[in-house]
UniProtKB/TrEMBL annotation:
Keywords: Membrane, Transmembrane, Transmembrane helix. The chain crosses the membrane at residues 48-66. This is Periplasmic heavy metal sensor.
Length: 205
């Protein structure tokens, strides 16, 4: 049976000219191109080429356009630090479930209007957050260094257990300290709120 169903596609010939190619749909479905039974060239295809270039340019711009704006009351620099913190904190904190009871500064600032925060409260919360994040990033860097040192010691078939134990104890102590220091920052943020604001914040969380 003769295949009547055909489609059009485009390719560039040996001279660099884009031409229209008649392709059988069966060949497209089977993964093979049936090279031209008929081809045409002209201004129409130059327009198509220009359209494709424009479309590709728009697509390439989409990632930059899609970047989310920083949260309210958050500078680009702080937004960058927050992104780094969220990426790395999971491997540094111990028993992070306690944070669920005490929402952080960024969450509270995102709902500043709903909570009716004053300018003074916003300024205080931003200051607490800056101290929290800067301290935590330094602690996480130290934790990563100690973790790598401990793992290097344990790679040996006969690791120096006494030395490794000291490094391990120092590592876990620093992880506990980093967790509690950051949790303390969350609690400080909560203390900036009034009782009514705290109750409202808990209903939003």
């Amino acid at each position: 049976m003769q295949e009547r169903s055909r489609s059009l596609t485009m390719r560039e010939d040996e001279k660099g000219t884009f031409v229209c190619i008649v392709v059988r749909k069966r060949d497209l479905r089977d993964g093979f191109l049936h090279f031209p039974e008929r081809k045409e060239s002209g201004m129409a295809f130059m327009k198509v080429r220009s359209f494709l270039v424009l479309a590709i340019g728009i697509v390439l711009c989409l990632p930059a356009m899609a970047k989310a704006a920083p949260p309210p009351y958050t500078s680009p620099e702080m937004a960058k630090k927050l992104g780094q913190f969220r990426k790395e904190a999971g491997g540094a904190f111990i028993v992070p479930q306690a944070f669920g009871t005490h929402p952080g500064a960024t969450f509270v600032l995102m709902h500043a209007k709903d909570l009716g925060l004053s300018d003074k409260q916003i300024k205080k919360i931003r200051m607490i957050r800056r101290e929290m994040v800067n301290r935590s990033l330094k602690q996480i860097a130290r934790i990563d260094k100690l973790r790598s040192r401990y793992l290097d010691l344990m790679k040996s078939p006969n690791p120096p257990l006494r030395k490794a134990r000291k490094v391990y104890m120092k590592l876990t102590r620093l992880m506990a300290m980093a967790t509690f220091d950051h949790l303390t920052g969350h609690i400080k943020v909560g203390k900036v709120l009034t009782k009514d604001q705290w109750a409202k914040m808990k209903s939003l969380h």
